[in-house]
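User: Can you predict the 3D structure for this chain?
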Amino acid sequence: MTEIFEIIQREFVYVWYYFTVQLRQIVGYWALGMVIGSLVSVFAKDSIHKAFESIRDKKWGLWGVVPASLLGIASPLCMYGTIPIAASFSKHGMRHDWLAAFMMSSVLLNPQLIMYSSALGVTALVIRIVSCALCGIVAGIVVHLVYKDKPFFDFKGFEPRASHDTHPNLFLRFLFNLGRNIKATGLWFLVGVLLSALFQRYVPADKFAALFGEANEGFGVLMAATIGVPLYACGGGTIPLIREWLSMGMSMGSASAFMITGPATKITNLGALKIVLGVKRFIIYIAFVMVFSLATGLLVNLIL
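Assistant: Here is the predicted structure, written as structure tokens:
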């Protein structure tokens, strides 16, 4: 019994050591992401949404999916916040291919996650921003080609929600928003750091690299895209994991695939999208995400 207790105690010390090392290395990026996300949400959110609404009457045709996708990335709202806004845009005549580009990129990335993803290094950050922007653009093009002038979304029953950022004092408004961000992501961030510590302690790096590394890049990308579906719960929890996986030999293509399928198939996002898409278009959405993530991962590995 004493021997078992000593083994447990020793393993706890090892995991705690890895946990604290990981935490010190990444907590600054997480904190900066929280601050930037709240600043954008409080001071720039309305301007971003007004900028998107202002392009409604532009005669850009299909090219409008480009600014729509970029503005989707700039929007700090989660999917449940984006859908009522998109419903309002649709009600006022916004093209659905532009809406598809806006919503797709908004699902994948936001200013907070951009800052947090910088913990993965410049290469991974650039790949994430470019791939997410392209995913939104391609989604808009697909909707345009397949559905043409027919509506793609069904926003019946969705109305813009009341904003939580209403305090007359701007500084207090920012602090309240920051508190909500920390509450929403803090636990998942710590869980992600813990999981990365457990990976570092108990998963052999050579075996992990053999599965997800460049030597097995095709299957590795497929596996990474697939595990992104059940594993992704919150951006705050996955960045420490991806960081550890890359250090253990995961190819950048596999990481890219995971960073697309993860947020795109996050369970809360799927629940919201199922409502506005219906069964047939929801299946198309899932198929599109998987195909795009696989293609992105393979292309990234080919280029790098």
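The chain has one domain: 2-303. The chain has a mean pLDDT of 82.
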